[in-house]
From TrEMBL:
<dbReference type="InterPro" id="IPR007410">
    <property type="entry name" value="LpqE-like"/>
</dbReference>
<feature type="signal peptide">
    <location>
        <begin position="1"/>
        <end position="27"/>
    </location>
</feature>
<dbReference type="Pfam" id="PF04314">
    <property type="entry name" value="PCuAC"/>
</dbReference>
<dbReference type="InterPro" id="IPR058248">
    <property type="entry name" value="Lxx211020-like"/>
</dbReference>
<dbReference type="InterPro" id="IPR036182">
    <property type="entry name" value="PCuAC_sf"/>
</dbReference>
<protein>
    <submittedName>
        <fullName>Copper chaperone PCu(A)C</fullName>
    </submittedName>
</protein>
<keyword id="KW-0732">Signal</keyword>
Length: 165
């Protein structure tokens, strides 16, 4: 089955073309609406922080990954009560039901930037790329520009982000 080996290559080309297109088109995606993307500013030597936004997909989809040059590792996390303690854990993705707003917010789902390249101060712009999968498991990349808000932007988990490796 030699044909199969061609497919990933074709997909890679498609993704590259999309990425280029997206960069030129200034953060627009026909299906996915992104509201108020923001990142929590950091203090010196803080190595991790969270990114938040509201996602509304007109067609059923799933956020499967996030990429950014701002940190060595970018993970999708969820905060949840576990034995009466708020804990966070990495999740493989976040479902985006058609037409339903999904909040990434302090205390819930968030994107975690781990091993930050530098300190983030309020007003900074952090570029991220959302990798979204549609119902046919086709992936596309959606650029996001998250603006840094002050450390105390809302009552939320901040300093106690313990990440086990
Ligand atoms: Cu986290």
């Amino acid at each position: 089955m030699k044909k199969i080996s061609i497919k990933p290559l074709a997909a890679a080309f498609a993704v590259c073309a999309l990425a280029l297109f997206n960069q030129a088109a200034v953060a627009q995606d026909a299906t996915l609406k992104i509201d108020e993307p923001w990142v929590r500013a950091t203090v010196p030597n803080q190595h991790a922080t969270g990114v938040f936004m509201r996602l509304t997909s007109s067609a059923a989809g799933r956020l499967v990954a996030v990429e950014s040059d701002a940190a060595k590792h970018v993970e999708v996390h969820e905060m949840a009560m576990q034995d009466n303690v708020m804990k966070m854990r990495q999740v493989p993705g976040i479902d985006l039901p058609a037409g339903q707003a999904v909040e990434l917010k302090p205390g819930g789902y968030h994107v975690m930037l781990i091993d930050l390249a530098r300190q983030i101060t309020p007003g900074d712009h952090i570029a991220l790329t959302l990798v979204v999968e549609d119902a046919k498991q086709q992936q596309r990349r959606v650029p996001v520009d998250a603006i840094a808000r002050p450390l105390n932007a809302s009552a939320a988990p901040a300093a106690d982000h313990a990440h086990k490796k």
